Amino acid sequence: MSIAPSDQTPSAATLASLAVVSPDTLLVQWNKPESDGGKAITKYRVEWDTVSTFNSAHRHTQYVLATDETPVIDVQSISTSVPPGKFLSGSFKVAFSGQTTLPLSYDISAADMQTALNDLCTVGSVTVSRNSLRNNKYDVATSQMGHTWPGHTWEITFTQMKYAGNQQTTHADPTLPNARHQVLDSHRLSVNGDSLLMCDALDIDHTGSSHDRAGLCRHIEEDHLKISGPTIDIGSKRETQVVHCRADTVGTVRLEFMGRTSASISTSADALQVEAALELMDSVGDVTVTFQGDLMTVCATAATLNGVLVTFESKLGDVPNMQFADESPEVTTLPPSAVSEVVKGRTQPVVGRLPYSLLISEGIETTSDWYVRVSAYNSIGYGTLEATSPSMARPARTVPMIARNISVSTKTSTALQVTWEAPVSNGGDPVTGYEIHWDTIDSFSSKCGDRAE
């Protein structure tokens, strides 16, 4: 038996994903196939329909040229700080997708941080820059001028990764059995600051060691019931919302999020049952549910300020509030807001995007689920059809996309002029305002008197 090699159609596009942008727009992203079949890929076909068989009257098609690559490189950050008048010392660790560095000095240089991250087998290649906030301070005890180091920020640029695009949440992993995508329970970049110390004395030699200041360094400090200590965090934050309701007898509630409604949830459900019900809605993704204080069930049986905390683990940034879709007569949703935001979600400084992306809006309606698939084309023909993950989405209102064409120029000796254009999509509601930040360092983390190193 013999086989003669010949040109073939391309293999399937990789990492195809689908996200809701607004009530009439969806975002499709994908990367090029593993194989072009022996002929150059010249274009991609994107199809969307209200049925998974793609044979209804609502089917639409659009083409993207292979030359229209517009990848966005992901940028994330790590920041440390201590309360005013205190000084950092000790060490911390950084983890990425399950691999953890050795302990890193609290003031590790950008070059050494870069080496430590690149040594992790889950990291392809990153570059790192560092901003260190420094104040000059005279130490009366030693009659010397020293430097306070109230914090550092490392910006990490993921220049080359096995899985391109957003480096903070879901990513494809074909090595997993029976799984096209690996859904992570937490952000891929994480930090552990258990060994960071807060010190009273200056680190005159800036050695990063606390041995010469024995007794002056600690992990936390309690003062009149206030607990303070060194902090470390990544640049993104998970959105957390709190749900309040009361039921004197057992009833049911249903929650709505971005066009999806949960199954009925018993008012006596525990945290794991609530979490499971929410995650069955494909608009939610991964969440963690906990109860505040002495709350034992999703709805309180007596007057209380405690509620159900829902943390969005895989949704990026600020997300719309959940709402009560309906509840049985036994249930009362508590004012002023039955669902309110406790922690506003925040994305990393730059959210990565795959090389190919397309905003689709033709025919899109909020009353239907939409299925999307992508295929690559070479001179032999179209390759394998690749469905997105998730396989379908229902359009709904969400937060606006980023502002476009931002620029800054000098207006006077004491003023800057900033200009920008509106986002491509407002998320489904008119944009009512913009928040503008400015700082002397690019990590936007300085305080009065601080300056970059």
Which short descriptors sum up this protein?
453 residues; Immunoglobulin-like; 4 domains; six-stranded antiparallel sheet; 2 helices; 34 strands; 4% helix
The helix content, as a percent range, equals under 10%
Give the tally of structural domains: 4
Please describe the biggest sheet, giving its number of strands, its sense, and whether it closes into a barrel. 6 strands, antiparallel
Are there runs of 5+ residues with pLDDT below 50, and where? Answer: 171-186
Shape: globular
Structural class: mainly beta
Number of helical regions: 2
Number of strands: 34
Mean pLDDT: 84
Please report which band the strand proportion falls in: under 5%, 5-15%, 15-25%, 25-35%, 35-45% or over 45%.
35-45%
Distance between the termini: 69 Å
Rg result: 26 Å
Describe, in plain words, how this protein is organized in 3D.
- This protein has 4 domains: 99 residues, Immunoglobulin-like; 160 residues, no CATH class; 104 residues, no CATH class; 45 residues, no CATH class.
- The longest helix has 9 residues.
- With 453 residues, it is mostly beta strands.
Brief characterization of the structure:
The chain is mainly beta and 453 residues long.
Write the layout of secondary structure elements.
Elements: E1 14-22, E2 25-31, E3 43-49, E4 60-65, E5 75-81, E6 87-96, E7 99-100, E8 104-105, H1 110-118, E9 125-139, E10 144-160, E11 171-172, E12 181-182, E13 189-192, E14 196-199, E15 217-218, E16 221-223, E17 226-228, E18 231-234, E19 240-243, E20 245-247, E21 252-257, E22 260-261, E23 265-266, H2 271-279, E24 287-291, E25 308-312, E26 323-327, E27 331-333, E28 339-343, E29 356-360, E30 370-378, E31 381-382, E32 386-393, E33 404-412, E34 415-421
Antiparallel strand pairs: 1-2, 2-29, 3-4, 3-30, 5-10, 5-18, 6-7, 6-8, 6-13, 6-14, 9-10, 11-12, 14-15, 16-17, 19-25, 19-28, 20-27, 21-22, 21-23, 21-26, 24-25, 30-31, 30-32, 33-34
